[in-house]
Design goal:
Blueprint lengths: L1 H16 L3 H14 L5 E10 L5 E12 L3 E3 L1 H10 L3 H16 L7 E5 L2 H4 L4 H12 L6 E5 L2 H4 L5 H11 L2 E7 L5 H7 L4 E4 L1 H4 L8 H15 L3 E5 L4 H9 L4 E3 L9 H9 L17
Parallel strand pairs: 2-4, 4-5, 5-6, 6-7, 7-8, 8-9
Antiparallel strand pairs: 1-2, 1-9, 2-3
Helix pairs in contact: 1-2, 4-6
Bound molecules: ligand C2E and magnesium ion (3 copies).
One magnesium ion binds next to strand 6.
Length: about 290
């Protein structure tokens, strides 16, 4: 809480210094009220196995319907929420909503939730997650937490303990956006991840841009396999990329080719169809936005 308050002050200071301050201040004020006004909602994007094409889970992706500006993407408002002390409230909302919805899906189907480093570093995080799982009777193994290496950049001596406690709780851990930051290999050693999510920048167009991306993906897959971790390729949009991803042995795919993020109704429908059609373009679905 002290950290959040500090960040809030810092935000205010910065805003008074810059010309874009008022627009930012307005957006920040809007975001502070967005939750209470019901403007935030959670979209779900399917994650599909490369062998057999069945859906193994969904990633929860928060959405903001701004009453005047229309939809604003999380790439824009999550950093704002992190800087201004709102991320824990928003993050808990996403976690609760996602776990509640996932509890209505057939058992092996998982839910992946993004966890901001600020949430991860909250001393109550394990307790919070455990309480939400209990509240909705979701088996811990069906919750996957997506963590970026930002978690390791914060100087927090409790990081190892938090990882250990999350593992003990039985939730799964995924390292998100792998390959985009600094010295990611060191982080693989530090924490007991179950999965590596290969960043879109290596995946999109991998089949067409020559051999560099596919060499990198191949290396990540080999690394993950040696460490006993799954892999998910993010951002698969074309059949050429899908075919390449399969050939390279990536275990799961997430991308517009199998489905865009859709609402809870669309996800429930998708989740209850045990397998999806594998042939050609018939596998592309258009969930409600
Ligand atoms: P991420 O966790 O890496 O999520 C994957 C992003 O890739 C999502 O963007 C998704 O819509 C997009 N994506 C998936 N497949 C494709 C594809 O085939 N083509 C293209 N062009 N894009 C694809 P989105 O929903 O805009 O989210 C952006 C980022 O915002 C996320 O990246 C994550 O870092 C953050 N975020 C979203 N929801 C939350 C949340 O609840 N909490 C936190 N802390 N961060 C969140
Ligand atoms: Mg993610
Ligand atoms: Mg990612
Ligand atoms: Mg990302």
């Amino acid at each position: 809480a002290a950290k959040a308050a500090g960040r809030g002050k810092h935000c205010f200071y910065e805003q008074s210094m810059h010309s874009e301050a008022s627009d930012r201040q307005i957006l920040e004020n809007d975001l502070r009220q967005a939750l209470d006004r019901g403007e935030l909602w959670v979209a779900y994007q399917p994650i599909v196995r490369t062998t057999g094409e069945d859906v193994c889970g969904f990633e929860a992706l928060v959405r903001w319907n701004h009453p005047a500006r229309g939809p604003i993407g999380p790439d824009k408002f999550i950093p704002l929420a992190e800087e201004c002390g709102m991320i824990e409230k928003i993050g808990t909302f996403v976690l609760r909503t996602a776990v509640k919805d996932a509890a209505t899906w057939p058992d092996p189907v998982r839910i992946a939730v993004n966890l901001s480093p600020i949430q991860f570093n909250n001393p109550n995080i394990v307790e919070t997650i455990s309480a939400v799982l209990n509240e909705h009777k979701l088996r811990a193994g069906r919750l996957e937490l997506e963590i970026t290496e930002g978690v390791f950049l914060a100087d927090n001596s409790a990081t190892d303990e938090t990882f250990a406690n999350l593992k003990a709780l039985g939730v799964r851990l995924a390292l998100d956006d792998f390959g985009t930051g600094y010295s990611s290999l060191g982080y693989l050693k530090k924490a007991p991840f179950d999965k590596i999510k290969i960043d879109q920048s290596f995946v999109r167009g991998a089949a067409s841009t020559g051999s560099r991306n596919s060499a990198i993906i191949r290396a990540i897959v080999s690394l993950a396999e040696s460490l006993g971790m799954d892999t998910t390729a993010e951002g698969v949009e074309t059949h050429d990329d899908l075919q390449l991803i399969r050939e390279l042995g990536v275990s799961q795919v997430q991308g517009f080719i199998f489905g865009r993020p859709g609402d809870a109704t669309a996800a429930a429908e998708y989740a209850s169809s045990a397998t999806i059609e594998a042939d050609g373009y018939s596998c592309i679905r258009e969930p409600r936005q």
